[in-house]
Design goal:
Layout: H1 10-13, E1 23-29, H2 34-45, E2 51-55, H3 61-64, E3 69-72, H4 78-87, E4 88-95, H5 101-106, H6 108-133, E5 137-144, H7 153-159, E6 161-162, H8 173-190, E7 204-211, E8 213-215, H9 228-237, E9 242-244, E10 254-256, H10 257-269, E11 279-281, H11 289-299, E12 305-307, H12 311-318, E13 323-324, H13 327-333, H14 341-357
The structure holds 2-amino-3-ketobutyric acid (AKB).
2-amino-3-ketobutyric acid (AKB) binds at residues 100-101, 144-146, 174, 211, 213, 224-226.
Length: 358
């Protein structure tokens, strides 16, 4: 998403505010993105949850129907956020809005605005909400393996599965922004307005996951650098040739969208006293681009895949780890992915993609 003209949805602006008791809601930003689609469906199925969505564009009807309300606007628009929070008592925020790693390198300052200033706006308003209703607001923040920055390929190969505190020198603006978002969340949870006399202890309950590349059968990513995995699969299913923009031996971690949504919901539901950290790695599988090619050719024998590495995008994935160590997530909140690479193809991607493209 990018900043632009924003405004309140017409159906929303008509609603009188004064004298009304605010209704409780869960706020999802970036609701129209890939994870927004899948998460909103899952949240709407959760008992007693009213979802209020926000995105820079109008939501597709299939997503909109699961929401109590939908705001069209930008997370940098503090006035819009204030109006939203005047109408709803928000006790949980899933802040998904972000400009991803490839797009961010074309417009780094815009990426900073959306990814950092937008996050700061939401944290500040969430802290104000917490003060107004006297309970901490849960703030769930998807971070990324882009927060890591490994200096060279040799180090990447030797490092293997990295732990949360290693190699935190990201090479992309998006990675820098995600790391900043993690630190801002930690600050708002534990230290916000440290010297103020009327300070509330822990206004924010901040929880974050560093996601690998995510593969959805239902939507295609855009603007990311892990996009080659899902793009290759969706192109093959549609009978389109695909030129992969990284080398065949490129390895980074991936997971399926159902596993990613499961991780978000599990972490959000975990008892706070079980959490030993604010930010967790989660791993699914860690194939090379060549592994994707092999599986795609086995499942779609007529697929045409070529490799035409783009030096810039290659340098980005080369700075990301081959795999991540997710033992903290497994131990603290029972993380365990449903899909490995083979079952991702056979149980999730193939049946749904076949139904989608025919
Ligand atoms: C990207 O490629 O930028 C994202 C990510 C790995 O966070 N998919």
């Amino acid at each position: 998403m990018s900043p632009g003209k924003s405004g309140i949805h017409p159906a929303v602006s008509d609603r009188p505010l004064s004298g009304l008791r605010r209704s409780r809601a869960v706020l999802v930003t970036g609701a129209g993105g890939e994870m927004g689609h899948a998460l909103i469906e899952a949240l709407a199925a959760r008992e007693g949850t009213s979802v209020v969505a926000m995105d820079i564009r109008e939501l597709e009807p299939g997503v909109r129907e699961h929401c109590e309300n939908a705001f069209v606007g930008d997370v940098c628009d503090a006035q819009l956020l204030e109006r939203l929070l005047a109408m709803y008592e928000v006790d949980e925020v899933f802040h998904l809005a972000a400009l991803l790693s490839t797009r961010g390198e074309f417009a780094p300052e815009t990426a900073h605005q959306v990814n950092v200033v937008g996050t700061l706006n939401l944290l500040k308003l969430a802290a104000e909400q917490a003060r107004s209703h006297g309970r901490p607001v849960k703030f769930v923040f998807p971070s990324s393996i882009a927060a890591y920055g490994i200096p060279d390929l040799d180090t990447k190969r030797k490092a293997g599965a990295v732990k949360e505190d290693q190699f935190l020198e990201p090479h992309t603006m998006y990675g820098v922004n995600k790391l900043a978002g993690e630190h801002l969340g930690r600050y708002y949870e534990g230290h916000y307005r440290k010297l103020a006399k009327d300070r509330m202890e822990r206004p924010i309950d901040f929880r974050s996951i560093r996601f690998p590349g995510i593969i959805s059968a239902d939507t295609l990513p855009s603007g990311g650098t892990s996009d080659y995995g899902p793009e290759m699969i969706h192109a093959a299913a549609q009978g389109k040739p695909y030129a992969c923009f990284v080398r065949r031996d490129t390895r980074i971690p991936f997971m399926t969208m159902p596993d990613a949504v499961d991780a978000v919901l599990r972490l959000a539901a975990a008892p706070k006293e079980r959490l030993t950290r604010c930010v967790y790695n989660v791993a699914g599988f860690a194939p090379t681009a060549g592994d994707f090619e092999r599986l795609v050719l086995e499942r779609f024998p007529k697929a045409k895949v070529s490799f035409q590495p783009d030096a810039g995008r290659q340098s980005i994935v080369d700075s990301w780890p081959e795999d991540v160590n997710d033992s903290a997530a497994r131990g603290d909140w029972g993380w365990s992915p449903r899909h490995d690479l083979e079952t991702a193809f056979d149980q999730y991607l193939m049946p749904r993609i076949a139904a989608r493209y025919g």
